[in-house]
Amino acid sequence: IGFVGLVIPHIARLLVGPDHRIMLPASAFLGGIFLILCDVLARIVIAPTEIPIGAITAIVGAPLFIYLLRRKNK
Description:
About 80% of the residues lie in helices and about 0% in strands. The chain is mostly helical.
């Protein structure tokens, strides 16, 4: 779940711009939506069992974080 705090603010900045008055609520909203989607995915992938949500956020968040790091260096 740590990836949410690292990745979502950067995605919110890309979507709404650098104004913190808009970016802070957008980050909170996007973080909540992201966690809900990861939770649904964790419950659906292997139907009778449940994958830990931290694993799902890491699988989705790591490539996004690497993309943001590479994009920032260019």
